[in-house]
Fold these 4 entries.
Entry 1:
Amino acid sequence: NPEGKNLYQLAGGNLQGNRWGLKGTEDLGGGLKAIFQLENGFDINTGTLGQGGRMFGRQAYVGLTHQAYGTVTLGRQYDPLVDLVQPLTADNYFGSTFTTPGDVDNNDNSSRTNSAVKYTSPTWSGFQFEGMYAFGGVAGQTGSQQTWSGAATYGTGPFSVAAGYIRMNNANSGVIRPNNSFTSTSDGTIDSIVNGAYATAKSIGIASVAVQFVTGPFTASARYSNAQYKPDGASTFASTERYNVAGGYLGYQVTPAALLGLGYTYTHGSGDTSASYNQVSLGGDYNLSKRTDLYLVGAWQRASGTQRNPRSSPPQQLQPAVASVADYGFTGDSRTQEIVSLGIRHKF
């Protein structure tokens, strides 16, 4: 914190957020099935609901699926980049500690989308695609609060590649939006001081691509994304903020039960500000059984340049960039920050 004191705490959900839910399938005949999923997130230390206190804030959808024609789902869902691009990145293996500062590119799936219609194709010779549109629900203003996204992936043998784009629109407004007011069908990706000053953006657009190669016990992947936070007359900033993110991951399956991982993420903000964040992450995961594992993960980050401070007085002032590892949102006043997490995960 600003006084230079470290934080020690019992925290829930590092490799994966805690969750509970229901899902089901009903055979309707002719290869057609009805499906649904209701899933919430919660804090295991207090029992309180996550995702803004929603009963089923992680996912809540119903749909139809057919092996030959694909799947259509309706409700609160992940976007196509989360479904197809994120699985090829370090976040898929070691979670938040390996993701982008502030999750500015939604690599850690901070955002979910309400009122969404999503189509997922079958897989043809390793190729699959998804498309999604979410209705803004504002009479006479079709573009207000709407979200649309598309992504595709191709995998053959040890090699896989995926790419996609998402556009999230904020609510229309004739007056200055208050801070932290991203009001859209999507939750947005405002997770820390890194991008907290851009909650009043008119839109957030994210393009991502990732590649992965698996050989023997090694998994190597690389990714790139470009996130743009664009203002309008109701925003509290005037110039588009762009984040270019490049990351690499190397995983080593030491034994069938033990996995080690090394990740590096470089994030550069430009346009409204000029800041860079270098982050190195390390992780180890050991399976005690098919359903229970122990993990130890950590990261070090260094920030440089300037960033806009959403909590300054007067608000939105430029300041020297401070570090904030991944999307945990811990903010001090230092250019460097370290975080280490030791935990146990159980699936049932």
Entry 2:
Amino acid sequence: MKPFEELYEAFYPRIYAFLFRLSRNRNETEDLTQETFYQAFTGFHRFKGQSDPYTWLVAIAKHVFYHFLRKKKRS
């Protein structure tokens, strides 16, 4: 298994749970979780492993969630 696939498998449930606590909507949470892992995938080459992967993913998830809120507020 490739390193990103392992990261996805290991942390998907925790990132999903984190985002669900914020949004309280299963459909939104699924989309936000997928966007979080997409952002992580595109930036994976920058992850140096100096921090816990969960911390890195939560930071991305928070950014994705706040971006979603701003976008939702505008529409």
Entry 3:
Amino acid sequence: MSGFELERYLEELQEFVDIDSGSHDIAGLTIAAQWLEKKYDAVGMKTELRFLGENRRPILIACSPAVSSDKKSDVLFIGHLDTVFPEGTVAERPFCISDGNAYGPGVADMKSGVLLTVYLAERFVRENPHIRLIAVHNCDEEIGSIDSEELIKILGAKTGYCFDMEPGRQGRNFVKNRKGVAEYKISFKGRASHAGNAPEKGISAVRELARWVYDTFPLNDASAGINVNVGVVSGGTASNVIPEFAECIIDVRYTEMELLPEVEKKFMAMAAEPAVEGVIVKVEKLSGFPPMAADEKTDIMMDALLKAGEKTGQSFEFESVGGGSDGSLISSVGTPVIDGCGPVGYMYHTPDEYMDISSIEERYALLYEAINILMEK
């Protein structure tokens, strides 16, 4: 397909995957970003490597020669470099190929999609240099884009279309909608006491936590598009001590922006009136992504992809999914996004993660044709 060098791609993917780049591994993330910067430089893109936040997390911006200093673009590619896997994972299970699939930490989510962006950029610089392309690769998406959100939104507001290079879905499908996601830490402070000698002097933080597990469950409403899950709980120090401290982490998924304030209102009301007298409750929002909503501009992108599919002999559908991504940040500033544009992946965030090698060239050809169709409009 148009001279795509699959062997070279897989060799470079092995190099890329075999760099530990967990979200909290700043050294590994910096190595990965510098590695990728060299690849973009080699294909004629202008690169800028920045470091954000107190931890100096890298973020790489690569622009085609047609992009001016104001960073306005026709097409924006986004794709994060961080994975959910800690330092040392590569040593345990490095990149490998078996039965037509590529394995390794982050191979699907989402180093294969990020590397494919380099190959697409290379072709556009060579064959369509007038198209203004920008690629943005942050290093904190898996923890809520805590440092990169503002910059991603700024660049997202200055582009016509965005392709999020997250892994393609089963059936070669793309993603058109994502639920919003918000994560909250609820902290409980009571008073410790000996459970045998003076239980009446204690105030159980764990007991109040248990109330939250039960009283937040009715907030789940599938028909309204709300999911609330108390996913992590902790508290207490010993079985013979009335627990002074407890904590839980709550995950909220929602389809419309106006739904989240109602959930937060319930949280604040529960915190203000604890069921266990004397317990102090604190609600803290840790991270989140807004919903990624489809509109008429998204329809234009989907139509272009379908026409490109006809031209390249590919069929697929567009899905709505529950997980958040940086595509949601782009959508929140009014720019249309299609997600799941990378090679097709499975089992991400697990030791069994893999990527379907046969989907690489298909995605390359499809996205190239779709973008050209969009630029003709």
Entry 4:
Amino acid sequence: MICISITNSSNRFAVVDMYNAAPQCDLMEIRLDRLEQPDITLLLESRQKPILVSCRRPQDGGEWSGTEEQRQVLLRQAMFEGVDYVELEVDIAEKIPRYGETKRVISYTSLNKPVRDLQKQYERACALDADIVKFTAPTNTLEEAWPMLRVLNRPEVPCVAEGIGQPGLTLSILGRKLNSPWTYAALEEGMEAHPGQATVAQLRDVYHYSSIGSKTQLIGVSGFTPQQQLAICLINGALNHLELNTRCLPMGIGEITNFDKLMKALHVTGVVLDVEYRSLILQVVEKLEESAQTCRQADLVLHQKKEWHGFNTVWRSAVRTLESTLKEKTGGESQPLRDRTVLIGGADATARAIAYGIQKRGGLLVVTSHDEDRATLLAQMYECRFVPQTHLNNVYADCVVCIEDDIVNEDPDVPPKQLIDEYYLRRSHTVMDLRNIPEDTPLLKEARLKKATIVEPLQIFIEQLSQQIRGLTGKSVSADEMTQWLGS
């Protein structure tokens, strides 16, 4: 079930929110602590779905400003008037006995750190005449979420586990798979019960919450950035299109040494990695494809034949999209990169991957970087030319590929030191910038003004997802199809 939290401060507007929420949820939580003058009778008369009443103290993440006695009176009144569920904290549950048919949700909240002695707290809550036990705590990584996951499927008393912030999505998805009674969602953006809470539309459209069941296979996607959310939206769309009972699990990986154990415990056999873990994952991976081995970076790992295999899809997606753009520009040349000079701005692992791909396609490399030592080593690795940033104006290039971030000065009044500035760009250039995919960068905006040819960052992003989906499922969804989904 999905429980939408009603967080308005006005009784009248709370009723409107309840009306709008009813078609989209199975349960509504009325946050009495958010209401300026709670009118329980009015709110219960307006219910179209079962109601859970809570009145949270500041130490539990709420906004109650009255006395504790007044708070407990409101909770008793809600039970007397026949609310479906009432949330009671473990330290007051004994003071408020069961009344009528109202079910008791016994909750324990830890706002700043994971719950300690979780099993002990679970047993304590069960002993307080609980119909449902609820835990709320930060779960930034799978290690932090793991103790809460272990109690989600307990047979004694059903358990709801709520993570704080965007990482709480991990518990929402896994809770659905483990048959937790419900997960929480906001009605709309700006109406969250806590910062980072998912909206009901995100649960429905991005995470395909209702289609997840106990037999659903999960694919890990690390990170909680807007980029990762878009990736999950498109991957889940492809999985649904392919009619596979597989969905994405957003997650924070945490300590890489626990990766293998946690993935096996969750039966996750494939993970799409964000930038933070593409090099760290090499501590876990037993086999690397050639490009991943060369650049020492993997953005996709698959568990095959009892081993983790690492793949680098960045270079393929970037180089294929670059080639496609050049073909349009040149009238359909079969090998558009051959003998064309490509300036690579950067010398990190991604730069090594792109250099690998461009050289395989016959391109002529020139390397520059803020870090001249690393750039020199990269140039030696690929037997190509290194040019200091100060000498860029003397370099001819057909294509410009920017990978390395600008250097931000500590003084906010001093602009960042650009690796490739707008004065270098020419209309004849084909420009690709991998720093903010799938969004534009200032460099790309300047290139558009100069009418240079742009390798669209969104197309690079979609091409990469297309390759990752093929690796994860063995089936193909074209980049063109995914592009159409975005427009629909």
